[in-house]
Write a structure and sequence with these properties.
With 147 residues, the chain is mainly β. It folds into two domains: 6-48, no CATH class; 59-146, 2-Layer Sandwich (Nucleotidyltransferase, domain 5), CATH 3.30.420. The chain is 9% helix and 38% strand. Strand 6 (34-41) and strand 7 (44-48) form a beta hairpin. The chain is globular and about 50 Å long. The termini are far apart.
Length: 147
């Protein structure tokens, strides 16, 4: 059995490219419905709890219509029934897809509006009655760029 590489008395993490890391390694899973963050240190993986103490966070972003405040995770999910047009979920399913394809198959599943720009899918939100289109290809939940 091959020995694990070490640096002094610390275990060294080796990536698939062969790069070695002797410090803690952070992993982020941006899932379609839930996301989580973990840290690998001292030979163990620890899931980092969110602000509510949960090990997973809903992959949901919402903008309050009155203040424009951006809500993420549990707060956004709780706001969804009251503000469905400004609450984004399952957006990972839209990344990299063409607008016509999404319109035929998935558009009816979302409570928010979709927009077509050069054949790409954008989502429309209106925080504080200030309409914006958000590009999904540039960034994923919860940080979006607007155009």
């Amino acid at each position: 059995m091959a020995e694990k590489p070490t640096a002094g008395n610390k275990e060294v993490v080796t990536s698939s490219t062969g790069a070695a890391y002797d410090g803690p390694v952070v992993g982020i899973d941006l899932g379609t419905t839930y996301s989580c963050v973990a840290i690998y240190r001292d030979g163990q993986v620890e899931i980092i709890p969110n602000e509510q103490g949960n090990r997973i966070t809903p992959s949901v972003v919402s903008w309050a219509t009155s203040t424009g405040e951006k809500l993420i995770g549990e707060a956004a999910k709780n706001n969804a029934p009251f503000n469905p047009k400004n609450t984004l979920y399952d957006v990972k399913r839209l990344i990299g897809r063409r607008y016509k394809e999404v319109l035929k198959k998935d558009a009816k599943l979302f409570s928010y509006d979709l927009a077509n720009k050069d054949g790409r899918v954008y989502v429309k939100v209106s925080p504080m009655m200030n309409p914006r289109r958000l590009c999904l290809q540039r960034r994923s939940v919860p940080w979006f760029s607007s155009e």
